[in-house]
# Entry
Amino acid sequence: MKKILSWLSLVTLVAIFGCGSDASDPTDALKSFLQAVEKQDYAEAKKYATDDSKSLLELMAMGNASKSDDSATTKASTLDQMIFGSPSIQGDKATITVQQKLDQTPVTFTLKKIGNDWKVAFDKTTLLGMGMEQLNEKGAAKKNQLDKALDEIKKIGIDSMQRAYEQEMKQLDTALQSLKDSA
# Structure
């Protein structure tokens, strides 16, 4: 009886501590992140992203807030159509190559270990690097034009975009209030 109880206790401890957060494995963290982004649940996506990535996710959330399209909730998950490579871990950094089953062009995601959890690097710098990797693989002839465009994008700060968005929203609120007042 004691053996059974000790085995049961061991199994329970393994279940509790071994099956913790999805973020303890880089592939699980990436899948959870992509699934949240696909569902447009950016609050959930932030749980699996680095701190540097959160402002870009907030910007995406603001952009999607104005849409009334709910097709993301009705379509089948695209994660089922993805092939996840084995993570390449070097210290506190991991890379995972992901490929759509119907597309031959892989995309490499970078994750960083923060504490005990893996977080997806979904910031401007990482995304630009992913884009450049795609360009190099396809041998794009217009690389110089894209480099110039990317340099211009780098000059645009997310904070300035967010401030401009907030100013526009204030002006819209003021206009709506004046319409209500005149009615």
